[in-house]
Specification:
The complex is a heterodimer of chains A (257) and B (223).
Chain A lengths: L8 E10 L2 E11 L4 E5 L6 H8 L7 E6 L2 E2 L2 E4 L2 E4 L2 H8 L2 E4 L11 H11 L5 H14 L15 H13 L5 E5 L7 H16 L4 E4 L3 H7 L2 E6 L2 E7 H6 L4 H8 L3
Parallel strand pairs in A: 3-10, 3-11, 8-9, 9-10
Antiparallel strand pairs in A: 1-2, 1-4, 4-5, 6-7, 11-12
Helix pairs in contact in A: 3-4, 3-5, 4-5, 5-6
Chain B lengths: L4 H6 L1 H33 L4 H15 L3 H11 L9 H26 L3 H9 L4 H31 L11 H12 L2 H36 L3
The chains are: A alpha/beta (257), B mainly alpha (223).
């Protein structure tokens, strides 16, 4: 792993409340470039919220998020911190790729259209370049032949692979996966996990919320165990799965054996 | 009783012109209304309550006035304010005002019912403001409203018959003038009815095509 001293993503004292209930209670986490960190934990433990706070799809109530040392959501101005404008925040978000549980492809665009949309219209890349890269990415996820197909005519697994290609097309510094296989029929899970494993092997920086323990064990450099909005445990994957330190993690893992 | 279809046949040009006027008036005002509806739906969905309230009041004012009364207002009342319009302009303006109010409301409803995931993905990929609306939200809304817009167009075609009251030579006016000249109310109104049915049938066919497209997009939402 490259020894970049600055974390790709750093969370400090992150707090998020929904209607008075603290969904995230003071989260501290640093993810180094090239790492694949899996976030696991029971339903409702705050995993997705944590992920969505990183690119400020959810605005944290307290604490701070840094992308390669740049604070998300606030900029320095005359010695104080000022809330970012929508366009500023939007530009910062382009540095983070996101893959959603329900794919969220844009249904009015073809597979390639989905992949080249933001590079062209947000990043302002030349169309020819975006198309060439888009085709290469569709090939990478095994969907070169679906280039001109609309999402309605793709299976869930195919949609999710297009969604991964769409995220990669932004050349993001970090990839966030929000339960990327939870909405898929069991027989389609494998094809998506295979793509994700390849990405992890390439040394992409990834933060993966998942219920796939086998994937976490094989692909994660570290595992974060979240329970009731707190990080209970952070450990290298093999340590977490062989000798979890906390009783809560042991109970949790018990259900997957 | 014998049907005097020979009279209708002799006056086919009047019916054809009437039908033509009904078609182009409705088509043009539909397009303009859709365009204006798109402009109106943005303030209707604004995050600012005051902006929303103003847009809502404007839209409801347009929707909650009988079409006939609106026609009277535009054609007969505006001249008292010093604004005299010829009947064609008045007709077009009336159709557009009335229909824009409906379009804005139809678009708003479709927007509200879009699944949130696609818009959220747009945000996550750096879209915001007008660009988010234009590239991500609006295309989905326009596809979703296709069938409803078609039904509204049928409504509009029927409402446009009221324009005969300001002597605008649309289809109903043509039928009425033929029947009163030759005393053939049954034949004349029957032919007009058939022509309206045919016209609406054509729109209905397009509605069904639109429904297929909308269904495709719904499947593509991934749920």
């Amino acid at each position: 792993m490259a020894t970049d001293p600055v974390p790709a993503v750093e969370l400090r004292g992150l707090v998020k409340q929904f209607g008075g209930h603290e969904v995230l209670v003071s989260i501290d986490l640093a993810v180094m470039p090239g790492e694949t960190v899996c976030i696991v934990g029971p339903s409702g433990s705050g995993k997705s919220t944590l992920l969505r706070c990183i690119n400020w799809l959810e605005r944290p109530d307290r604490g701070s998020v840094f992308l390669h040392g740049v604070r998300v959501g606030y900029r320095r101005s005359d010695g104080g911190n000022v809330l970012m404008s929508d366009p500023e925040l939007a530009m910062l978000r382009t540095r983070v790729g996101m893959v959603f549980q329900h794919f969220n492809l844009w249904p009015h665009m073809t597979a390639l259209g989905n992949v080249i949309e933001s590079p062209i219209h947000v990043l302002g890349r030349p169309r020819g370049e975006a198309v060439a890269e888009g085709e290469r990415l569709l090939e990478k996820v095994g969907l070169a032949d679906k280039r001109d197909v609309y999402p309605a005519f793709l299976s869930g697994g195919q949609m999710q692979r297009v969604a991964i290609a769409r995220a990669l097309a932004m050349r993001p510094e970090v990839l966030l996966f929000d339960e990327a296989t939870s909405a898929l029929d069991p027989e389609l899970v494998g094809e998506v996990l295979a793509v994700m494993k390849d990405l992890a092997r390439e040394g992409r920086t990834m933060i993966v919320v998942t219920h796939e323990m086998k994937f976490a064990r094989e692909a994660a450099s570290r595992v974060v165990f979240l329970d009731n909005g707190r990080i209970v445990e952070i450990a290298p994957a093999e340590v977490f799965f062989e000798k979890p330190a906390s009783e809560r993690a042991r109970q949790f893992l018990e259900r997957y054996r | 009783m014998t049907l005097r279809l020979d009279v209708i046949w002799k006056e086919w040009l009047q019916f054809a012109l009437g039908l033509g006027n009904t078609v182009w008036l409705c088509a043009v005002s539909m397009l303009l209304s859709l365009l204006l509806g798109v402009l109106f739906v943005v303030p209707l969905m604004s995050r600012r309550r005051a902006v929303r309230a103003v847009a809502r009041t404007a839209v409801d004012s347009g929707r909650c006035i009988p079409f006939l009364l609106l026609t009277y207002l535009v054609y007969y009342a505006l001249p008292s304010l010093g604004l005299s319009l010829d009947k064609w302009t008045a007709a077009l303006i009336t159709l557009v005002i009335y229909n824009t109010a409906y379009m804005a409301e139809i678009l708003r409803s479709a927007w509200v019912h879009l699944p949130p995931g696609q818009t959220e993905a747009g945000r996550a990929f750096g879209y915001t403001g007008i660009r988010l609306f234009r590239r991500i939200i609006l295309p989905q809304v326009l596809i979703a409203v296709g069938p409803v817009v078609g039904n509204q167009l049928i409504q509009l075609i029927k409402d446009s018959a009221f324009l005969s009251i300001i002597t605008l030579p649309e289809l109903t006016y043509a039928a009425n003038s033929v029947q009163s000249f030759y005393f053939v109310p049954f034949e004349s109104f029957l032919v007009a009815t058939l022509l309206y049915w045919g016209l609406c049938g054509g729109v209905e066919y397009l509605v069904q095509r639109g429904e297929r497209l909308a269904a495709m997009v719904r499947r593509g939402h991934g749920h």
